[in-house]
Amino acid sequence: MFHTKLDDFPKDFLWGAASAAYQIEGGFDADGKGPTIWDDFAMTAGNTFENTDGKVAIDHYHRYKEDVQWMKKMGLKAYRFSVSWGRILPDGNGKVNEAGLAFYENLIDELLANGIEPLLTLYHWDLPLALQEKYQGWEGRETVAAFKKYCEVLYRRFSGKVRYWITMNEQNVFIPLGYRWGAHPPKVTDLKRMYQANHHVNLANAEAITSFRQLVPEGKIGPSFGYGPTYPLSCNPNDVLAAENGEDFNNRFWLDVYCKGKYPKFMLKQLTNLGLAPTITPEDEALLASVRPDFLGVNYYHGGTVKQNEYEAGSQMATEKDFSKVDPYQMAAKEGEKAPEKAMFQTVENPYLEKTDWGWEIDPVGFRVALRKLASAYDLPIMVTENGLGAYDELQEGLIHDDYRIDYLQNHLLELQKALTDGVEILGYCAWSFTDLLSWLNGYKKRYGFVYVDRDNQSEKALTRLPKDSFYWYQEVIATNGQNLTKGEK
Protein backbone atom coordinates (compact mmCIF):
# COMPACT_ATOMS: atom_id res chain seq x y z
CA MET A 1 0.00 0.00 0.00
CA PHE A 2 1.47 3.30 -1.12
CA HIS A 3 0.51 6.48 0.73
CA THR A 4 1.15 9.95 -0.71
CA LYS A 5 1.09 11.31 2.85
CA LEU A 6 1.50 9.55 6.17
CA ASP A 7 -0.84 10.23 9.07
CA ASP A 8 0.52 12.15 12.02
CA PHE A 9 1.12 10.22 15.21
CA PRO A 10 -1.75 10.66 17.69
CA LYS A 11 -1.24 13.55 20.12
CA ASP A 12 -1.37 11.15 23.07
CA PHE A 13 1.01 8.61 21.49
CA LEU A 14 3.17 7.00 24.19
CA TRP A 15 6.78 7.45 23.11
CA GLY A 16 8.67 5.20 25.48
CA ALA A 17 11.52 2.88 26.26
CA ALA A 18 11.73 -0.39 28.15
CA SER A 19 13.71 -2.50 30.60
CA ALA A 20 13.40 -5.60 32.81
CA ALA A 21 14.09 -6.02 36.51
CA TYR A 22 16.79 -8.70 36.44
CA GLN A 23 18.61 -7.00 33.59
CA ILE A 24 18.99 -3.60 35.27
CA GLU A 25 18.21 -3.56 38.98
CA GLY A 26 21.02 -5.37 40.79
CA GLY A 27 20.44 -5.43 44.53
CA PHE A 28 19.82 -9.15 44.16
CA ASP A 29 19.46 -9.71 47.93
CA ALA A 30 18.74 -6.14 49.09
CA ASP A 31 16.01 -5.26 51.58
CA GLY A 32 14.52 -8.72 51.94
CA LYS A 33 14.36 -9.75 48.28
CA GLY A 34 14.16 -13.51 47.77
CA PRO A 35 16.34 -15.35 45.22
CA THR A 36 14.98 -16.00 41.74
CA ILE A 37 15.68 -18.77 39.27
CA TRP A 38 17.99 -16.36 37.43
CA ASP A 39 19.95 -15.56 40.60
CA ASP A 40 20.45 -19.30 41.04
CA PHE A 41 21.09 -20.12 37.37
CA ALA A 42 23.82 -17.50 37.02
CA MET A 43 25.71 -18.90 40.02
CA THR A 44 26.73 -22.02 38.08
CA ALA A 45 29.79 -21.50 35.89
CA GLY A 46 29.07 -21.99 32.21
CA ASN A 47 25.36 -21.23 32.37
CA THR A 48 25.71 -17.63 31.18
CA PHE A 49 27.90 -15.76 28.71
CA GLU A 50 31.32 -15.25 30.33
CA ASN A 51 29.61 -16.07 33.66
CA THR A 52 27.81 -12.74 33.77
CA ASP A 53 25.01 -12.20 36.28
CA GLY A 54 22.56 -9.60 37.54
CA LYS A 55 23.84 -9.21 41.10
CA VAL A 56 24.70 -5.59 40.36
CA ALA A 57 23.57 -5.25 36.74
CA ILE A 58 23.53 -1.45 36.20
CA ASP A 59 22.45 -0.81 39.82
CA HIS A 60 19.11 0.74 38.89
CA TYR A 61 17.83 -0.32 42.32
CA HIS A 62 20.02 2.34 43.94
CA ARG A 63 20.14 4.77 40.99
CA TYR A 64 16.53 4.84 39.80
CA LYS A 65 16.16 8.57 40.52
CA GLU A 66 19.17 9.34 38.35
CA ASP A 67 17.79 7.12 35.58
CA VAL A 68 14.38 8.80 35.74
CA GLN A 69 16.07 12.18 35.38
CA TRP A 70 17.70 10.94 32.16
CA MET A 71 14.24 9.82 31.01
CA LYS A 72 12.86 13.26 31.78
CA LYS A 73 15.71 14.91 29.87
CA MET A 74 14.96 12.70 26.89
CA GLY A 75 11.28 13.62 27.13
CA LEU A 76 9.94 10.08 27.50
CA LYS A 77 6.17 9.82 27.65
CA ALA A 78 6.22 6.24 28.95
CA TYR A 79 8.59 3.82 30.63
CA ARG A 80 8.04 0.09 30.62
CA PHE A 81 9.65 -1.83 33.49
CA SER A 82 9.06 -5.14 35.21
CA VAL A 83 8.56 -5.99 38.86
CA SER A 84 10.72 -8.69 40.41
CA TRP A 85 8.26 -11.16 41.96
CA GLY A 86 10.93 -12.11 44.52
CA ARG A 87 11.09 -8.53 45.84
CA ILE A 88 7.36 -8.61 46.61
CA LEU A 89 6.94 -12.19 47.85
CA PRO A 90 10.43 -13.49 48.73
CA ASP A 91 9.26 -17.11 48.80
CA GLY A 92 6.84 -16.56 45.93
CA ASN A 93 3.67 -17.18 47.88
CA GLY A 94 3.97 -16.07 51.50
CA LYS A 95 4.51 -12.88 53.41
CA VAL A 96 4.61 -9.61 51.49
CA ASN A 97 7.93 -7.73 51.64
CA GLU A 98 7.00 -4.10 52.29
CA ALA A 99 10.46 -2.86 51.31
CA GLY A 100 10.06 -4.39 47.87
CA LEU A 101 6.66 -2.80 47.36
CA ALA A 102 8.03 0.54 48.54
CA PHE A 103 10.82 0.45 45.95
CA TYR A 104 8.39 0.09 43.06
CA GLU A 105 5.98 2.62 44.53
CA ASN A 106 8.83 5.10 44.81
CA LEU A 107 9.82 4.39 41.20
CA ILE A 108 6.23 4.82 40.01
CA ASP A 109 5.83 8.07 41.97
CA GLU A 110 9.11 9.36 40.56
CA LEU A 111 7.95 8.59 37.01
CA LEU A 112 4.58 10.25 37.53
CA ALA A 113 6.18 13.33 39.11
CA ASN A 114 8.24 13.72 35.95
CA GLY A 115 5.35 13.27 33.54
CA ILE A 116 6.21 9.70 32.51
CA GLU A 117 3.50 7.03 32.19
CA PRO A 118 4.52 3.80 34.00
CA LEU A 119 3.91 0.58 32.04
CA LEU A 120 4.24 -2.26 34.52
CA THR A 121 5.20 -5.78 33.44
CA LEU A 122 4.17 -8.42 35.96
CA TYR A 123 6.44 -11.24 34.77
CA HIS A 124 9.71 -10.87 32.89
CA TRP A 125 11.24 -14.29 33.56
CA ASP A 126 12.56 -13.98 37.15
CA LEU A 127 10.44 -16.60 38.96
CA PRO A 128 11.07 -16.89 42.72
CA LEU A 129 13.45 -19.78 43.33
CA ALA A 130 11.27 -21.14 46.15
CA LEU A 131 8.48 -21.87 43.67
CA GLN A 132 10.87 -23.69 41.37
CA GLU A 133 12.13 -25.84 44.22
CA LYS A 134 8.71 -26.50 45.76
CA TYR A 135 6.46 -26.91 42.71
CA GLN A 136 8.91 -27.28 39.77
CA GLY A 137 8.06 -23.72 38.83
CA TRP A 138 5.61 -23.42 35.95
CA GLU A 139 5.26 -27.20 35.77
CA GLY A 140 3.19 -27.07 38.95
CA ARG A 141 -0.36 -25.74 38.94
CA GLU A 142 0.35 -24.31 42.38
CA THR A 143 2.50 -21.66 40.71
CA VAL A 144 -0.59 -20.39 38.88
CA ALA A 145 -2.27 -19.64 42.21
CA ALA A 146 0.94 -18.05 43.54
CA PHE A 147 1.12 -15.77 40.51
CA LYS A 148 -2.48 -14.70 41.05
CA LYS A 149 -1.70 -13.76 44.66
CA TYR A 150 1.40 -11.81 43.60
CA CYS A 151 -0.57 -9.89 40.95
CA GLU A 152 -3.33 -9.03 43.39
CA VAL A 153 -0.80 -7.56 45.84
CA LEU A 154 0.40 -5.21 43.08
CA TYR A 155 -3.10 -4.42 41.84
CA ARG A 156 -4.23 -3.34 45.30
CA ARG A 157 -1.14 -1.22 45.88
CA PHE A 158 -0.82 0.49 42.50
CA SER A 159 -4.40 0.73 41.24
CA GLY A 160 -4.95 4.37 40.37
CA LYS A 161 -1.25 4.99 39.76
CA VAL A 162 -0.56 2.53 36.93
CA ARG A 163 -2.90 2.51 33.94
CA TYR A 164 -1.17 0.01 31.62
CA TRP A 165 -0.18 -3.46 32.82
CA ILE A 166 1.58 -6.26 30.92
CA THR A 167 1.04 -9.80 32.18
CA MET A 168 3.64 -12.10 30.57
CA ASN A 169 6.70 -11.01 28.61
CA GLU A 170 7.52 -13.22 25.63
CA GLN A 171 6.06 -16.50 26.83
CA ASN A 172 7.01 -17.87 23.42
CA VAL A 173 10.67 -17.19 24.26
CA PHE A 174 11.14 -18.00 27.94
CA ILE A 175 9.21 -21.29 27.74
CA PRO A 176 11.23 -22.85 24.86
CA LEU A 177 14.55 -21.47 26.13
CA GLY A 178 13.87 -22.83 29.60
CA TYR A 179 12.12 -26.12 28.86
CA ARG A 180 13.29 -27.21 25.40
CA TRP A 181 16.71 -25.76 24.73
CA GLY A 182 18.00 -25.62 28.31
CA ALA A 183 19.64 -22.24 27.68
CA HIS A 184 17.60 -20.51 30.41
CA PRO A 185 16.46 -21.71 33.81
CA PRO A 186 15.16 -24.21 34.77
CA LYS A 187 17.48 -25.77 32.15
CA VAL A 188 15.09 -28.52 31.05
CA THR A 189 15.14 -30.24 27.67
CA ASP A 190 11.79 -32.04 27.51
CA LEU A 191 9.04 -31.11 25.03
CA LYS A 192 6.25 -32.79 26.99
CA ARG A 193 7.15 -30.86 30.12
CA MET A 194 7.56 -27.71 28.04
CA TYR A 195 4.03 -27.79 26.66
CA GLN A 196 2.54 -28.50 30.09
CA ALA A 197 4.48 -25.63 31.69
CA ASN A 198 3.37 -23.40 28.83
CA HIS A 199 -0.27 -24.30 29.49
CA HIS A 200 0.11 -23.33 33.13
CA VAL A 201 1.52 -19.95 32.12
CA ASN A 202 -1.57 -19.48 29.93
CA LEU A 203 -3.73 -20.20 32.97
CA ALA A 204 -1.70 -17.74 35.05
CA ASN A 205 -2.19 -15.07 32.39
CA ALA A 206 -5.95 -15.68 32.43
CA GLU A 207 -6.13 -15.62 36.23
CA ALA A 208 -4.18 -12.35 36.29
CA ILE A 209 -6.62 -10.71 33.88
CA THR A 210 -9.63 -12.04 35.80
CA SER A 211 -8.38 -10.50 39.05
CA PHE A 212 -7.43 -7.29 37.26
CA ARG A 213 -11.02 -6.73 36.10
CA GLN A 214 -12.13 -6.71 39.73
CA LEU A 215 -9.29 -4.76 41.32
CA VAL A 216 -8.21 -2.28 38.63
CA PRO A 217 -11.43 -1.60 36.69
CA GLU A 218 -10.09 1.64 35.19
CA GLY A 219 -6.83 0.07 33.95
CA LYS A 220 -5.78 -1.70 30.77
CA ILE A 221 -4.00 -5.06 30.65
CA GLY A 222 -2.53 -7.41 28.06
CA PRO A 223 0.35 -9.83 27.39
CA SER A 224 3.52 -8.96 25.50
CA PHE A 225 4.40 -11.36 22.69
CA GLY A 226 7.60 -11.71 20.67
CA TYR A 227 6.09 -11.65 17.19
CA GLY A 228 7.52 -11.86 13.71
CA PRO A 229 5.71 -12.79 10.48
CA THR A 230 6.60 -16.04 8.72
CA TYR A 231 7.52 -15.72 5.03
CA PRO A 232 7.56 -18.50 2.43
CA LEU A 233 10.93 -18.80 0.69
CA SER A 234 9.18 -18.83 -2.69
CA CYS A 235 5.73 -18.79 -4.26
CA ASN A 236 5.88 -22.58 -4.55
CA PRO A 237 2.63 -23.69 -2.88
CA ASN A 238 4.59 -26.11 -0.72
CA ASP A 239 6.59 -23.21 0.70
CA VAL A 240 3.40 -21.18 1.20
CA LEU A 241 1.92 -24.10 3.14
CA ALA A 242 5.12 -24.29 5.19
CA ALA A 243 4.75 -20.61 6.09
CA GLU A 244 1.15 -21.24 7.19
CA ASN A 245 2.42 -24.06 9.39
CA GLY A 246 5.12 -21.78 10.74
CA GLU A 247 2.58 -19.13 11.73
CA ASP A 248 0.62 -21.74 13.66
CA PHE A 249 3.69 -23.22 15.33
CA ASN A 250 5.53 -19.99 16.19
CA ASN A 251 2.72 -17.51 16.71
CA ARG A 252 -0.92 -18.57 16.72
CA PHE A 253 -0.31 -21.31 19.28
CA TRP A 254 0.16 -18.54 21.86
CA LEU A 255 -1.75 -15.64 20.39
CA ASP A 256 -5.01 -17.52 19.85
CA VAL A 257 -5.06 -18.49 23.52
CA TYR A 258 -4.41 -14.90 24.60
CA CYS A 259 -6.85 -13.24 22.23
CA LYS A 260 -9.45 -15.90 21.35
CA GLY A 261 -9.38 -17.98 24.52
CA LYS A 262 -8.55 -21.30 22.89
CA TYR A 263 -5.73 -23.25 21.29
CA PRO A 264 -5.66 -23.39 17.48
CA LYS A 265 -7.02 -26.74 16.26
CA PHE A 266 -4.12 -27.43 13.90
CA MET A 267 -1.42 -27.24 16.55
CA LEU A 268 -3.41 -29.01 19.24
CA LYS A 269 -4.07 -31.91 16.90
CA GLN A 270 -0.40 -32.25 15.92
CA LEU A 271 0.72 -32.18 19.56
CA THR A 272 -1.94 -34.73 20.49
CA ASN A 273 -0.79 -37.06 17.72
CA LEU A 274 2.79 -36.78 18.99
CA GLY A 275 1.83 -37.32 22.63
CA LEU A 276 3.00 -33.81 23.53
CA ALA A 277 -0.30 -32.02 24.18
CA PRO A 278 -0.77 -30.63 27.68
CA THR A 279 -3.45 -31.84 30.05
CA ILE A 280 -6.32 -29.39 29.64
CA THR A 281 -9.33 -29.71 31.92
CA PRO A 282 -12.84 -28.40 31.18
CA GLU A 283 -12.24 -25.84 33.93
CA ASP A 284 -9.07 -24.73 32.14
CA GLU A 285 -10.98 -24.29 28.89
CA ALA A 286 -13.64 -22.22 30.63
CA LEU A 287 -11.04 -19.97 32.28
CA LEU A 288 -9.13 -19.35 29.05
CA ALA A 289 -12.35 -18.58 27.17
CA SER A 290 -13.51 -16.12 29.83
CA VAL A 291 -10.84 -13.46 29.31
CA ARG A 292 -9.72 -11.14 26.54
CA PRO A 293 -6.93 -8.57 26.86
CA ASP A 294 -7.48 -4.84 26.42
CA PHE A 295 -4.47 -4.57 24.13
CA LEU A 296 -1.73 -6.74 22.69
CA GLY A 297 1.87 -5.97 23.55
CA VAL A 298 4.26 -6.68 20.67
CA ASN A 299 8.00 -7.18 20.85
CA TYR A 300 9.31 -6.99 17.30
CA TYR A 301 12.84 -7.72 16.13
CA HIS A 302 12.30 -9.76 12.95
CA GLY A 303 10.32 -12.62 11.49
CA GLY A 304 11.45 -15.79 9.77
CA THR A 305 11.51 -17.51 6.40
CA VAL A 306 10.64 -21.15 5.78
CA LYS A 307 10.40 -23.71 3.02
CA GLN A 308 8.77 -27.10 2.58
CA ASN A 309 9.37 -29.59 5.40
CA GLU A 310 12.45 -31.78 5.21
CA TYR A 311 10.61 -35.08 4.83
CA GLU A 312 8.87 -34.04 1.63
CA ALA A 313 11.67 -31.78 0.39
CA GLY A 314 14.46 -34.23 1.27
CA SER A 315 16.93 -31.82 2.88
CA GLN A 316 18.17 -31.21 6.39
CA MET A 317 17.39 -28.64 9.07
CA ALA A 318 20.10 -26.27 10.20
CA THR A 319 21.52 -26.85 13.67
CA GLU A 320 22.38 -24.34 16.37
CA LYS A 321 24.46 -25.17 19.42
CA ASP A 322 26.31 -21.98 20.36
CA PHE A 323 23.85 -20.15 22.60
CA SER A 324 26.02 -17.01 22.72
CA LYS A 325 25.02 -16.46 19.08
CA VAL A 326 21.58 -18.05 19.10
CA ASP A 327 18.51 -16.17 17.94
CA PRO A 328 15.70 -16.97 20.41
CA TYR A 329 13.07 -15.89 17.90
CA GLN A 330 14.12 -18.38 15.20
CA MET A 331 15.80 -21.40 16.77
CA ALA A 332 16.45 -24.42 14.58
CA ALA A 333 15.83 -27.97 15.72
CA LYS A 334 18.90 -29.91 16.80
CA GLU A 335 20.22 -32.96 14.98
CA GLY A 336 18.24 -36.05 16.01
CA GLU A 337 15.79 -34.12 18.19
CA LYS A 338 12.13 -35.11 18.35
CA ALA A 339 10.88 -31.84 16.92
CA PRO A 340 7.25 -31.34 15.87
CA GLU A 341 8.13 -28.57 13.45
CA LYS A 342 10.26 -30.87 11.28
CA ALA A 343 7.11 -32.22 9.66
CA MET A 344 5.79 -28.69 9.14
CA PHE A 345 8.58 -26.50 7.76
CA GLN A 346 12.31 -25.84 7.50
CA THR A 347 13.74 -22.53 8.68
CA VAL A 348 16.05 -20.84 6.13
CA GLU A 349 17.83 -17.51 5.73
CA ASN A 350 16.04 -14.72 3.93
CA PRO A 351 18.18 -13.74 0.90
CA TYR A 352 16.81 -10.18 0.89
CA LEU A 353 17.73 -9.17 4.43
CA GLU A 354 20.91 -7.97 6.10
CA LYS A 355 21.83 -9.05 9.62
CA THR A 356 23.03 -7.40 12.80
CA ASP A 357 26.44 -8.12 14.31
CA TRP A 358 24.64 -10.78 16.36
CA GLY A 359 23.10 -12.56 13.39
CA TRP A 360 19.55 -11.22 13.69
CA GLU A 361 17.83 -10.26 10.45
CA ILE A 362 16.99 -6.58 9.96
CA ASP A 363 13.50 -6.26 8.51
CA PRO A 364 11.70 -2.91 8.99
CA VAL A 365 9.00 -3.75 6.44
CA GLY A 366 8.33 -6.91 8.42
CA PHE A 367 7.37 -4.62 11.31
CA ARG A 368 4.54 -3.18 9.23
CA VAL A 369 3.58 -6.66 8.05
CA ALA A 370 3.49 -7.85 11.67
CA LEU A 371 1.32 -4.97 12.84
CA ARG A 372 -1.09 -5.45 9.96
CA LYS A 373 -1.38 -9.20 10.53
CA LEU A 374 -1.99 -8.83 14.25
CA ALA A 375 -4.58 -6.09 13.82
CA SER A 376 -6.43 -8.16 11.22
CA ALA A 377 -6.35 -11.40 13.20
CA TYR A 378 -7.18 -10.12 16.68
CA ASP A 379 -8.71 -6.63 16.34
CA LEU A 380 -7.01 -5.27 19.44
CA PRO A 381 -5.10 -2.04 20.04
CA ILE A 382 -1.35 -2.68 19.90
CA MET A 383 1.33 -1.46 22.26
CA VAL A 384 4.83 -1.93 20.86
CA THR A 385 6.61 -3.06 24.02
CA GLU A 386 10.04 -3.77 22.50
CA ASN A 387 11.98 -2.97 19.34
CA GLY A 388 15.66 -2.21 19.13
CA LEU A 389 19.17 -2.99 17.95
CA GLY A 390 21.79 -4.89 19.91
CA ALA A 391 25.28 -3.79 18.88
CA TYR A 392 28.91 -3.39 19.90
CA ASP A 393 28.99 0.23 21.09
CA GLU A 394 32.45 1.70 21.59
CA LEU A 395 33.43 4.85 23.43
CA GLN A 396 35.27 7.33 21.22
CA GLU A 397 36.71 10.22 23.21
CA GLY A 398 33.89 9.93 25.72
CA LEU A 399 31.12 9.70 23.11
CA ILE A 400 29.04 6.97 21.51
CA HIS A 401 28.31 7.58 17.83
CA ASP A 402 25.61 4.97 17.11
CA ASP A 403 24.33 6.04 13.71
CA TYR A 404 23.58 2.37 13.01
CA ARG A 405 21.03 2.36 15.87
CA ILE A 406 19.48 5.60 14.67
CA ASP A 407 19.12 4.17 11.16
CA TYR A 408 17.57 0.99 12.53
CA LEU A 409 15.05 2.75 14.74
CA GLN A 410 14.22 5.40 12.17
CA ASN A 411 13.47 2.79 9.50
CA HIS A 412 11.29 0.81 11.89
CA LEU A 413 9.40 3.87 13.09
CA LEU A 414 8.69 4.91 9.52
CA GLU A 415 7.13 1.49 8.90
CA LEU A 416 5.16 1.85 12.13
CA GLN A 417 3.85 5.20 10.90
CA LYS A 418 2.83 3.53 7.65
CA ALA A 419 0.95 0.89 9.64
CA LEU A 420 -0.84 3.67 11.53
CA THR A 421 -1.76 5.20 8.18
CA ASP A 422 -2.98 1.76 7.03
CA GLY A 423 -5.43 1.84 9.94
CA VAL A 424 -3.70 -0.11 12.71
CA GLU A 425 -4.47 1.25 16.20
CA ILE A 426 -1.15 1.66 18.01
CA LEU A 427 -1.07 3.06 21.53
CA GLY A 428 2.64 3.60 21.88
CA TYR A 429 6.18 2.50 21.10
CA CYS A 430 8.75 1.39 23.68
CA ALA A 431 12.26 1.05 22.30
CA TRP A 432 14.45 -1.65 23.79
CA SER A 433 16.09 -0.39 25.83
CA PHE A 434 16.44 2.87 27.74
CA THR A 435 19.87 2.09 29.22
CA ASP A 436 22.38 -0.58 28.39
CA LEU A 437 21.64 -3.68 30.42
CA LEU A 438 22.41 -7.36 30.94
CA SER A 439 21.54 -9.41 27.87
CA TRP A 440 20.19 -12.82 28.90
CA LEU A 441 22.39 -14.67 26.41
CA ASN A 442 25.18 -12.16 25.73
CA GLY A 443 26.10 -10.46 29.00
CA TYR A 444 26.98 -6.76 28.94
CA LYS A 445 28.74 -6.98 25.60
CA LYS A 446 25.56 -6.64 23.55
CA ARG A 447 24.23 -3.12 24.04
CA TYR A 448 20.75 -1.80 23.24
CA GLY A 449 20.38 1.41 25.22
CA PHE A 450 20.01 5.08 24.43
CA VAL A 451 22.15 5.60 27.54
CA TYR A 452 25.57 3.97 27.71
CA VAL A 453 26.49 2.40 31.06
CA ASP A 454 30.20 2.15 31.78
CA ARG A 455 30.67 -1.47 32.79
CA ASP A 456 31.66 -4.73 31.10
CA ASN A 457 31.41 -8.46 31.70
CA GLN A 458 34.34 -8.50 34.11
CA SER A 459 33.79 -5.34 36.16
CA GLU A 460 31.05 -2.94 37.25
CA LYS A 461 33.52 -0.04 36.95
CA ALA A 462 31.83 3.25 37.88
CA LEU A 463 28.47 2.50 36.19
CA THR A 464 28.54 6.04 34.80
CA ARG A 465 25.58 6.96 32.56
CA LEU A 466 26.38 8.58 29.21
CA PRO A 467 23.82 9.53 26.54
CA LYS A 468 24.57 8.21 23.05
CA ASP A 469 23.87 10.03 19.80
CA SER A 470 20.65 8.01 19.56
CA PHE A 471 19.52 9.56 22.86
CA TYR A 472 19.42 13.01 21.30
CA TRP A 473 17.87 11.70 18.09
CA TYR A 474 15.00 10.04 19.99
CA GLN A 475 14.65 13.16 22.12
CA GLU A 476 13.91 15.07 18.91
CA VAL A 477 11.52 12.37 17.68
CA ILE A 478 9.51 12.71 20.88
CA ALA A 479 9.63 16.51 20.92
CA THR A 480 8.25 16.67 17.36
CA ASN A 481 5.83 13.74 17.86
CA GLY A 482 7.55 11.89 15.04
CA GLN A 483 7.45 14.76 12.55
CA ASN A 484 11.21 14.42 11.92
CA LEU A 485 11.00 10.79 10.75
CA THR A 486 12.09 11.41 7.18
CA LYS A 487 14.89 9.71 5.29
CA GLY A 488 18.28 11.24 5.79
CA GLU A 489 17.42 13.08 9.00
CA LYS A 490 19.04 12.06 12.26
UniProtKB/TrEMBL annotation:
Signal peptide: none
InterPro entries (UniProt xref): GH, GH_1_N_CS, Glyco_hydro_1
A Pfam short name: Glyco_hydro_1
Family designation: Belongs to the glycosyl hydrolase 1 family.
Name assigned to this protein: 6-phospho-beta-glucosidase
